[in-house]
Design a protein that fits this description.
Layout: E1 2-7, H1 11-22, E2 28-31, H2 58-70, E3 75-77, E4 81-86, E5 92-96, E6 101-109, E7 113-115, E8 131-132, H3 135-138, E9 146-150, H4 154-164, E10 169-174, H5 183-191, E11 195-199, E12 202-209, E13 212-219, E14 225-228, E15 233-235, E16 239-241, E17 276-278, H6 290-311
Parallel strand pairs: 1-2, 1-6, 2-3, 6-17, 8-15, 9-10, 9-15, 10-11
Antiparallel strand pairs: 4-5, 5-6, 7-16, 12-13, 13-14
Helix pairs in contact: 1-2, 1-6, 4-5
Length: about 300
Amino acid sequence: MLDLAIIGGGPAGLSAGLYATRGGLKNVIMFEKGMPGGQITSSSEIENYPGVAQVMDGMSFMEPWNEQCMRFGLKHEMIAVEQISKNADNTFTIKLEGGKSEQAKAVIVCTGSAPKKAGFKGEAEFFGKGVSTCATCDGFFYKGKEVAVLGGGDTALEEALYLANICSKVYLIHRRAEFRAAPNTTEKVKQNAKIELITEASIDEVYGDQKGVCGVKVKLKDGSIRDLNVPGIFTFVGLDVRNEILKQDNGSFLCDMCDGGQVKVNLKMQTNIAGLFASGDLRQDAPKQVICAAGDGAVAALSALAYIESLH
């Protein structure tokens, strides 16, 4: 029987693991099917984490977190979790891929979020062949070439700036006239000569051949179509929370959920199910910032510690 199971290995999960093990729990496993670090590892630039003055890429930034969090006895199982359910004795069953399972006294779910699909024609067909949601992963393939970026938030603009260092030109396409990114990021984009803004516009179609994307048709405000001859487009149009493991066999969710699929929690990261906690992008009203996810994880771990102590 595990004291605590942590599902997800991003900033929330790692922080939860650090606080839980340092707080005295001996049998804590963090289930993360890939390497720990989370979605932020694909970010090209982090400059707003307090106390870290050096501008770093996401992978370098998250590297020491793993070592620090494992120092106090946190174990990492590289396996996918399929479902969490609660037992009659108030413990939890963690159903793992391959038919395995674990039992735990308490669970912290911090499975994060995944990039939303934009929904334009050709997106699915050419995903991985010119359509991407990760500039740091795929930007290198377009060195010296023109590319397009879709989105108007912080991620879209930050990745456009990153791509401008690699590519000959970046077309930044946004459906509104104004951007939702931080003012200083917006100003950097506007001042960058290699970035052309195409606002109040949408993607009509991405087309190509067997080799991949050949171009992007953009629908402008006046209804006309502009054809961009680019071999790649990067989409950053928001995030969908990963809540699948909370679904039960009857189709309902294990705990109370918001309309958007986020988990309802209180300020202690407690759900309405005793012993079940949620943190990071998965929980309601998440700001989707690393520092907030890390704080969530710490709060969830402290709450879990108090809960487990109350069982004795």
